[in-house]
Amino acid sequence: MKLSNEVKVGITVLLAVIVAIVGFRFMRDIPIFRQSMEITATFDRADGLSNGNLVYIKGVRVGSVGRITLTPEATVTINMRIDTDVPIPRGSVAMLTSLGIVEGKSIVIELGTSSENVQFGEEIEGVYAETMMEVLGSKGEELGDDVSNTIYELNLFLRQLNETLDDEARTTLGETLNNVYVTTGKIAEILDEKQQEIDNAIESGSRMLSQLDTLVTDSRPQVDSLLATIEHNIAELEAVRIELESATANFNEILEKINMGEGTIGKLVNDPSMYENLDSLTIELNNLIKGINENPGRYLRHMSIIDLF
Amino acid sequence: MHALKEIGKYTTLLYQALRSSTEFSTYRKNLFHELVKVGYDSVPIIILVGIFTGSVMTLQSAYQLEFAFIPLSTIGAIVSESILIELAAVISGLVLAGKVGARVATELGTMRVSEQIDALESMGFNSVSFLVVPRVLAGILMFPVLYIVASIFGIGGGLAAGYFSGTVPPADFLKGARMFFYPWNVVFGFLKSFVFGFIITSVACYKGYYAKGGAEGVGRATTEATVMGCILILLADFILAALLL
């Protein structure tokens, strides 16, 4: 079907008008196809409230703020469009408040308990609720004084601290820190330089330990047998010691007997007469040998070689 | 001196158009033809302009406000407000200065240099009423319609861009858009589109109607119509903002 120019224009304009009206009502949050209920409320003041702000009942959005007018009595009358099937009883209170710190103002309707409901265009009571920011604003001066006092005291403390840390102390502190810094640097340098050696030392140490370990493991049987032998020897030594002990006891006994003058040796040791006898015998023998030397014939007269054989 | 003469000729042409606007029977057929040309045929490009403007606005606002400690609904407020006050009217105005302005200037310029306008005059037709009035009227009547289309698709495009890119949920976007929706902004944007429609078509008619010098003259008239249209749109935008906001 070929549309005539008139029809095309008509369609375009009509659609635009419909879309504009629907869009406008949509953006204003007015129900698109029905008349919404209007009620008013009067407040002492309406700081921050503007046309289009939202109206809540128990946290649910039910409408928006319409016209805001200043009355001759210097109060503010606010029109609200409410779109809800929930009836609003007479005696309900509209509170002008803010739902959050960053949110704009809005109106919260606290439902009353009356059995009669508010009719179109009626007025309900309005209460201006101070928000946290406003309370903060009025209390702000007090708070500011406190804060400035605190800061003053903090300042004082810092100044005292500054005075305590006089120039000299600060210099010393600085130097000390500097020294520590230098020392740390040197240690790091030394460690850097000796790194290789330290590595080597650690390596050779560990090598030595491992060799020792091998050695110990290898020679274990020998060491064991050696220890067994030593043990055996010690046992024998013990036996020898016991024998020696008894021998010594015997010997002691003998010596005691000798001391007591018992037996030949005892008599020999204790009796000087034998020594004297031997002494005199020796003298006699000396004399005899001298006599023989001086006059062998006398003693060898009857002695001949033949006789001897 | 030249500029004064131009302004004088322009004003005279407008005066003639105004005086002859009562001769409805002369331009009735032409008016509907122009309404279709200016309005109906421009709807697709305006839809495109609207969608892209809105979605780019959303993405860029989201990017710019990414680190700020503000609710996401602010983005919806920024996008819908900017579109309603400024972008829907001005950007479609600039696009149509190219599309409609160039066409009107070329049509009238060609008719002038091929002496068709003189022929009309010699046949007893009021050429201003026959050619200029329907075109200017079409601009005045159709630009507000196109403004509505651009606004709807701009806000819709912004909403969709926020949803599909995951930056702004539709609920937040709408909340912000509604919270800062003031009827005056729509009236203001509407007024702008009236003015822009008038500027574009009247300047194009003027440039085309007084074109001279063959094909080159038509080309010059078209260029001047487009450039002057754009400049005057920006100027009018500024003046309206300064006067009415």
Structural description of this entry:
- The complex is a heterodimer of chains A (309) and B (245).
- With 309 residues, chain A is of the alpha/beta class.
- Among the domains of chain A are: 35-129; 261-299.
- Chain A contains eight helices and seven strands.
- A seven-stranded mixed barrel of chain A has the order 1-4-3-2-6-5-7.
- In chain A, strand 2 (54-57) and strand 3 (60-70) form a beta hairpin.
- Chain A is rod-shaped, with a radius of gyration of 68 Å.
- The model of chain A has no long low-confidence stretch (mean pLDDT 82).
- Chain B has one domain (27-244).
- Chain B has helices at 2-19, 24-38, 43-64, 73-113, 116-122, 127-165, 170-179, 183-209, 214-244.
- By secondary structure, chain B is mostly helical.
- Chain B is elongated, with a radius of gyration of 20 Å.
- The model of chain B has no long low-confidence stretch (mean pLDDT 90).
Count the DSSP helices of chain A. Answer: 8
Q: What quaternary form is this?
A: heterodimer
State which percent range the strand residues of chain B make up. under 5%
Mean pLDDT of chain B: 90
